[in-house]
């Protein structure tokens, strides 16, 4: 199996637990991964501290880039990153991506992934959806992106909040094409 190069973008939408669990899982799956580049919005850092009570995102063994670092490798298709996961994905970020507005590294990375016909996974975390949100989801989907709402499943009988959130993260890892041990329906 070819090792993957993955971009993780974390926006300021509520749901820092999803980002944390994804980073934990990617660390555990490092044998399948060549490189992970992480970019966080300013609001993402604040939400992480507020919702999780710490700044442990600084401790992960990944390459971190500032939101305005257009020298980051994944700001160009020539770097050949396979997958971009935006988790959680704010509706503002989704709207900018849908309209092709590349005003920061998150939206530029998504633009590059889409133009190169690679895998973009947007884990949207809002409710309810307005017609504008739905139209932006449709536009991103038509451009080749995958909209994966942060809707947990319960058939695995999760016990903790981490177990519930992990049901979403496991789905994202599957969508990214990584092999993992996780609950499978009827197995």
Draw up the topology in text.
Elements: E1 4-10, H1 16-28, E2 33-40, H2 42-52, E3 63-65, E4 83-89, H3 91-98, H4 105-115, E5 119-124, H5 131-142, E6 146-147, H6 161-175
Parallel strand pairs: 1-2, 1-4, 2-3, 4-5, 5-6
Helix pairs in contact: 1-6, 3-4, 3-5
Condensed summary:
The chain has 187 residues and is of the alpha/beta class. It has six helices and six strands.
Sequence stretches where pLDDT stays below 50 over 5 or more residues: none
Biggest sheet strand line-up: 3-2-1-4-5-6
What percent strand?
A: 15-25%
Helix content: 25-40%
Describe the structure.
With 187 residues, this protein is α/β, with parallel strands linked by helices. 37% of the residues lie in helices and 18% in strands. The chain has six helices and six strands, in the order βαβαββααβαβα. It has helices spanning 16-28, 42-52, 91-98, 105-115, 131-142, 161-175; strands at residues 4-10, 33-40, 63-65, 83-89, 119-124, 146-147. Strands 3-2-1-4-5-6 form a six-stranded parallel beta sheet, with helices on both faces. Helix 5 links the parallel strand 5 (119-124) and strand 6 (146-147). The radius of gyration is 15 Å and the shape is globular. It starts with a strand and ends in a 12-residue tail after the last helix. 40% of the residues are buried. The mean pLDDT is 96.
């Amino acid at each position: 199996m070819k090792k993957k190069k993955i971009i993780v973008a974390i926006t300021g939408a509520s749901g820092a637990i999803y980002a944390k669990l994804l980073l934990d899982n990617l660390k555990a799956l490092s044998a399948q991964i060549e490189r992970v580049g992480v970019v966080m919005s300013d609001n993402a850092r604040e939400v992480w501290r507020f919702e999780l009570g710490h700044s442990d995102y600084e401790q992960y063994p990944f390459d971190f880039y500032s939101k305005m670092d257009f020298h980051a490798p994944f700001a160009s298709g020539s770097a050949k990153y396979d997958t971009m996961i935006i988790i959680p994905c704010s509706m503002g970020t989704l709207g900018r991506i849908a309209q092709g507005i590349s005003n920061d590294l998150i939206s530029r990375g998504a633009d590059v992934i889409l133009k190169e016909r690679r895998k973009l996974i947007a884990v949207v975390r809002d409710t309810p959806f307005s017609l504008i949100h739905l139209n932006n989801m449709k536009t991103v989907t038509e451009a080749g992106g995958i909209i994966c709402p942060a809707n947990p499943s319960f058939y695995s009988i999760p016990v903790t909040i981490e177990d519930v959130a992990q049901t979403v993260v496991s789905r994202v890892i599957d969508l990214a094409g990584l092999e993992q041990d996780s609950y499978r329906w009827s197995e």
